Amino acid sequence: MAKFLLTLSLTAFLLSACGKQTDAVTLTIINSLDVERRGEIVEVPLADLTRKLDVPDTARLVVRNEAGYEVPVQRTHDGKLLFPATVAALDTARYIVQPGTPAPVPVKVCGRVYPERLDDLAWENDRVAFRAYGPALQATGERGYGYDLLAKRDTDLPVLDERYALHLKQGISYHEDHGNGMDCYAVGPTLGGGTTALLNSEGRIAYPWCYRTCEVLDNGPLRFAARLTFPPMALDGDTVVETRLIALDLGSYFNCTEVAYRGLSHEAPLVVGIVLHDDTGEVALSEDGYMAYADPTTGKGNGRLFVSALFPDSVQEMKTAFFPPAEQKQRAGACGHLLARTTYRPGTCYVYYWGFAWDKAIGTNFDAWQGRLEQEAGKLKHPLAVAVE
Known about the structure:
Layout: H1 2-18, E1 25-30, E2 37-45, H2 46-53, E3 61-64, E4 70-71, E5 74-75, E6 80-87, E7 92-99, E8 110-114, E9 120-124, E10 129-132, H3 135-139, E11 148-152, H4 160-169, E12 181-182, E13 193-199, E14 205-206, E15 213-219, E16 223-229, E17 233-235, E18 238-249, E19 254-262, E20 268-276, E21 283-286, E22 290-295, E23 305-310, E24 317-322, H5 325-330, E25 336-344, E26 350-358, H6 359-362, H7 366-381, E27 385-388
Antiparallel strand pairs: 1-7, 1-27, 2-6, 3-4, 3-7, 5-6, 8-9, 9-10, 10-11, 11-12, 13-14, 13-20, 15-16, 16-18, 17-18, 18-19, 19-26, 20-25, 21-22, 22-23, 23-26, 24-25
């Protein structure tokens, strides 16, 4: 009853402030899981809101929760309005949308291309950071196929600009922890921290090179998104061009990634790979829709990275695949990959999630992390539903 009265009070306040009911739209957020969803980013088509509010598509909008407090918002390149929602287990929550000027908020999700460091694309949120290698690195002949993982701790603010500046201008290495994390992950000529690749007709991985072009589409405060296009690749008689749309939200350990291959004339096996740096490390392959590996990191005393991939749709196979001894030398000493295999169909997008957590940042072990992965996999299969009233 108290919650109902609070909702009525908020609605009455908004109507008295605006003078008519059409000046506000109510969003009902529905949580079908028996777990609280706290600060989860939801998205609503902007056109649905501006049409109901009878305002131009370019109008600025403010979102408030049931208690009347404003929450951060972001417009995306593809016409959505983002905001963080908190919904109790098996419950609903209501948010009010009105025209207005949103209050400024600190940007904790951001990224850019670093031409000063061989065209790295590096991005981060309040928990983790990542890197994809660019054309200037490929021009050197170095083989950097996979995603790099950049650990953060004891801060929710951006750190990458400072790390690059200190590393490049003052010789203060980002491979050492100076108080907020470090780069302690080895990629080399492997799929790194969760990269996709096609298999050729012989069942071998067709490794992608560094990205060819990059377009940053969204740059905070709630989501970073970029589109990467890769150099043409020969595969079983086809010339294939790969594109990836990568998006990282505030509060998440995982990038949502859509992968497509233009020029492919036939179905082909596709794998998501996580490099293995030892042959005795902890591994999790779950029918709940995830795989994970406790990476030992480089150097002593740097903890472990719980490198993981999540699959909203079922995969055909998950396995550990070790390199032959001779190939381990070619792969900078890596032992092999965790691989999740599915079939890619031309003209479609393959969607999955990849990321990691650093045990020195989250303070839990690999078993506890797997519990977190089970929750995250459940959220992907049962996303928050949004009703526009």
